[in-house]
Write a structure and sequence with these properties.
Number of strands: 17
Strand order of the largest sheet: 3-4-17-16-15-9-13
Number of domains: 2
Low-confidence stretches: 1-5
Number of helices: 5
CATH architecture of the largest domain: Box
Structural class: alpha+beta
Order of helices and strands: HEHEEEEHEEEEHEEEEHEEEE
Radius of gyration: 21 Å
């Protein structure tokens, strides 16, 4: 019984929500034993990672993460039982319902490469409150635009959604919150005038507020202000 207890994990809503968010980035995931989840998009332009409360005792190679989440949704309070390294049994202690989910070959699921989460050559930092993020995402849907851009010009800083290829595009903008620079004692006119852009479709973030770091190497880190272990690394789009 003690051995079985060690192989049993009750998933929290927070972890299930995280898995659902990660499934929007990549429909496959390789979960190593421990209390850490990470994923990378097929195009390798988004990486997401976070600690979780539960300790996963076995490697889980899940090719179809939406299907796995669907299996979890069959139960009000899903518990995972790990009988061996080939499958996991999902069951509900109250209803006694259960299902068996078999893993795929881990070799066919891309592993997130090791990388330094401290971005090289950081340039600009700012906060992105949840309300601002929600307004920007809603505006992108209303106007049917695909670009989210951060602008700086003559000491004024803003974040907006627009179609950067269309000079007459509808634009929704907000003031940038708490902007700071990596080397404020060495500011130049060129550094004060900038444009950093993302594709809206790449901003697959869990609802919440974030601290954002933009790097000169065309990558950004979105770090959750409510969960310090939750981080997204998203590639910037080239300025054309």
């Amino acid at each position: 019984m003690q051995a079985e207890a060690r192989q049993t994990v009750k998933l929290s809503k927070q972890t299930i929500d995280l898995l659902r968010n990660f499934s929007a980035i990549n429909k496959s995931i390789l979960i190593d034993p421990g209390k850490f989840l990470e994923t990378m998009s097929v195009n390798k332009n988004i990486i997401a990672a976070s600690d979780i409360r539960e300790g996963i005792p076995e490697q889980m190679a899940i090719y179809d993460l939406p299907l796995f989440l669907g299996a979890l949704s069959l139960f009000k309070s899903p518990t995972l039982f790990f009988p061996d390294n080939k499958k996991v049994v999902i069951y509900d202690e109250d209803t006694k319902g259960k299902t068996t989910f078999y893993y795929s070959d881990p070799e066919i699921i891309g592993r997130v490469p090791e990388f330094n989460p401290d971005l090289p050559d950081p340039e600009l930092f700012f906060d992105l409150p949840q309300q601002d993020l929600e307004q920007l995402m809603q505006a992108s849907k209303v106007y049917g635009v695909e670009d989210l851009c951060i602008y700086g010009y003559e000491g004024e800083y803003s974040i907006c959604v627009k179609d950067k290829k269309n000079d007459t595009s509808n634009v929704f903008s907000l003031p940038l919150k708490k902007p700071t620079f990596s080397d404020p004692g060495n500011m130049t006119k060129e550094r004060l005038t900038f444009c950093y852009c993302f594709k809206v479709e790449n901003l697959k973030l869990l609802p919440g507020s974030y601290h954002v770091c933009l790097s000169r190497r065309n990558i950004a880190n979105f770090s959750s202000l409510s969960n310090s272990s939750l981080n997204y690394f998203i590639a910037l789009e080239p300025n054309k």
